[in-house]
Amino acid sequence: MQLCFATNNAHKLAEIKALLGETFALKTLKEIGCEEELPETTDTIEGNSRQKAEYVWEHFGVDCFADDSGLEITALNGAPGVHSAYYGGSRDFQGNIARVLEELKSASDRSARFKTVITLVLQGKVYQFEGVITGQLLKEQRGSQGFGYDPIFVPDGHERTFAEMSIEEKGKISHRSRAFAQLVDFLKPYS
Ligand code: IMP
């Protein structure tokens, strides 16, 4: 079965390829002839995930799935959410963290959650899968692994930040792996 993962992130592609096994001829965007930037113009994580997957289906006629993720902070009414990648003004992890820490300066509630939504378009039908991990945001950064907001996020039930965990450790509990696990389960009957 031919299936496209609508991402240009080689790391994400390798991760999901390992989970899906050989049954699916998982294609990259380039391999299906899609060289353009996918649209991400909605104001929700769900919306952007769906927009990317539907774009590929509509323009290339290939079954596909896309993911979109973000950090939702309780005290900021769910921000940065869909704006997580550019929250500090540019695509810069340190700038993003700086803005979050500044905005949480006087907040007593430092709870937050990472969320991933995967949208699968299979023969024109749309399915969505959501993975969430809740945690607390520190006042300073700890650790050097990972990316994004990892250095300030301590998942509930853990002592260390995501940036202090190995990729494997984070991969067992992360929002992304939880959403992907649901996708893999859903696709099993099609293999
Ligand atoms: P994407 O949709 O996976 O590209 O994620 C959008 C943005 O959300 C990233 O640029 C990060 O700022 C943030 N983000 C998503 N997942 C993670 C994560 O696992 N750790 C830290 N930050 C993340």
UniProtKB/TrEMBL annotation:
Transmembrane segments: none annotated. It catalyses: dITP + H2O = dIMP + diphosphate + H(+); ITP + H2O = IMP + diphosphate + H(+); XTP + H2O = XMP + diphosphate + H(+). Coiled coil: none annotated. Substrate binds at residues 7-12, 69, 147-150, 170, 175-176. It is an enzyme of class 3 (hydrolase). Keywords: Hydrolase, Magnesium, Metal-binding, Nucleotide metabolism, Nucleotide-binding. Mg(2+) binds at residue 68. Its EC number is 3.6.1.66. Homodimer. This is dITP/XTP pyrophosphatase.
